[in-house]
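Tip: read the tokens left to right.
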């Protein structure tokens, strides 16, 4: 139940933010070769990173492939070309807050994707580098702890549909694995699927 509420809240936040941003930007009569973009994604998947037990006996987990990523960058679209290149810097995070403690998982992805753009569709693939992945746990009666992971490289497959002249909505799949910095414990699977949105200006 808590997981569904968190996912719903993230979707509402994403759509509200994009709508507000779009209303403050008019369409461009001339589309430049390089355009600024803001991006976001809601994702789910991967191994369990942490578990929070609520007072009412319910529990919620943070997974290595959850939950919300926001960022910005540039989209390079050469005139008359079927291809485009997208470069973004992002903040990717998930957190759970309970009366008896909280948990979080944060990382900073830099992504480079190449797209083929037939009509209003675009299909792409690329790489993502997750810098400083870190999980933190803070529960009542326990010492605050954290787990650091090495920077990780992953692969992305993505499909987008051009909903308006400047707004894309899509789906993505990311394959990535996190390795603990102290080399203790098994690798953590961060593979995930997600919904994406991009606004270009």
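Filled-in amino acids:
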């Amino acid at each position: 139940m808590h997981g569904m509420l968190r996912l719903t809240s993230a979707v509402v936040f994403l759509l509200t933010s994009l709508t507000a941003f779009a209303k403050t930007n008019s369409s461009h009569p001339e589309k430049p070769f390089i355009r600024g973009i803001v991006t976001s994604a809601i994702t789910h998947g991967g191994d369990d990173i942490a578990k929070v037990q609520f007072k009412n006996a319910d529990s919620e987990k943070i997974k290595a492939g959850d939950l919300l990523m926001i960022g910005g960058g540039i989209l390079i679209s050469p005139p008359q070309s079927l291809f485009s290149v997208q470069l973004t810097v992002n903040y990717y995070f998930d957190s759970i807050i309970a009366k008896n403690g909280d948990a979080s998982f944060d990382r900073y992805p830099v992504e480079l994707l190449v797209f083929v753009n037939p009509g209003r569709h675009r299909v792409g693939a690329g790489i993502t580098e997750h810098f400083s992945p870190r999980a933190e746990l803070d529960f009542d009666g326990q010492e605050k702890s954290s787990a650091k992971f090495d920077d990780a490289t992953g692969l992305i497959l993505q499909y987008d549909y051009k909903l308006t002249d400047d707004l894309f909505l899509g789906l993505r799949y990311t394959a990535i694995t996190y390795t603990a910095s102290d080399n203790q414990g098994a690798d953590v699977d961060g593979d995930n699927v997600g919904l994406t949105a991009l606004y270009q200006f």
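The helical segments are 2-23. The chain is about 10% helix and 60% strand.
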